[in-house]
Design a protein that fits this description.
7% of the residues lie in helices and 64% in strands. It is mainly beta. The longest helix is centred in the C-terminal third of the chain and has 11 residues. The termini are far apart.
């Protein structure tokens, strides 16, 4: 087995790279249940991938970190997921953040979505000038109902 690989014996698996930054491995991948504690394994690393992941780049069912992708995604810079919550850009079915894009979007600055809530919104009913300018600047285009 590769270095850092821990067999799961039917309980899941875990891989942690030998290279580390502080206490965190560069890459940590795991899933399943820890057979000793009987608790879900949590991937913690610079790049963390697992059912529950915490890292600079976190990918998982529940993901928490700087840049996150997951079912429930909590990201400081960027969050993408079914439920995406973050300080920066959040994109998902339900998105909450400074800039929120989603089916239901709640933005502290901009909100873009089917139902949007925030200071500058673009949704099915309304297109604020600030949201239009934001879209024009970053994407070079705006929806037809925003002209």
């Amino acid at each position: 087995m590769p270095s850092g690989w821990y067999g799961g014996y039917g309980w899941g698996f875990e891989y942690a790279s030998s290279q580390r930054i502080g206490d965190w491995p560069i890459v940590h991948v795991c899933s399943g249940v820890d057979p000793i504690t009987m608790r879900p394994r949590v991937a913690k690393g610079v790049i963390a991938i697992g059912n529950i992941a915490v890292g600079v780049l976190a990918i998982g069912g529940i993901a928490c970190g700087l840049v996150t992708l997951g079912g429930v995604s909590l990201g400081l810079l960027f969050a993408l997921g079914g439920l995406a919550i973050g300080v920066g850009l959040s994109m998902g079915g339900v998105a909450v953040g400074s800039i929120a894009v989603g089916g239901v979007a709640a933005g502290l600055v901009y909100a873009i979505g089917g139902a949007a809530f925030g200071p500058a919104i673009l949704d099915a009913r309304r297109c604020d000038e600030a949201a239009r300018v934001f879209l024009q600047r970053w994407f070079g285009t705006v929806p037809v109902n925003c002209r």
